[in-house]
Amino acid sequence: MKNNADISTLLKPIGRSFRKFHTTIFIVAVVAGLAYVVLSVTSIISSASVGTSAPSTGTEATLDSTTIERLGDFHTSDAIPAAEALPAGRVNPFNE
Predict the structure, then answer these.
(1) pLDDT tens digits, residue range 15-61?
(2) Exposed, middle or buried, 28 (CB in 10 Å: 0-12/13-18/19+)?
């Protein structure tokens, strides 16, 4: 019987401390768990992308003469484009 009394007297201060700080302990545990998850996912992503390289699926592009002519028809950035005709009563909001 005396051992039970000794154990209960040892656990009472621990129980009071836990009741007093249970919210703080919970928040610290949640933040620590989230930090662990973030660091684990970051290390998995970085280690997965280090050693592998995706095969190139690109194809060579060639320009034929019609494409080159169509590109030549574009105006340069310093040329002023011709004003577009708008329907009657309409105003272009992008004009300065």
Answers:
(1) 888 888 899 999 999 999 999 999 999 999 888 765 556 666 666 77
(2) exposed
Cα of 95 vs its chain's centroid, Å: 37
The whole-model pTM stands at: 0.41
Considering only CA atoms, give the Rg of the chain.
Answer: 36
Residue type present at position 87: P
Closest CA to 82 of 95, 71, 72: 95
Residue pair 75/81 in contact (Cβ under 8 Å)? The answer is yes
What distance in Å separates the CA atoms of residue 96 and residue 92, rounded to the nearest whole number?
9
Q: Rounded to an integer, what distance in angstroms lies between the CA atom of residue 45 and that of residue 76?
A: 44
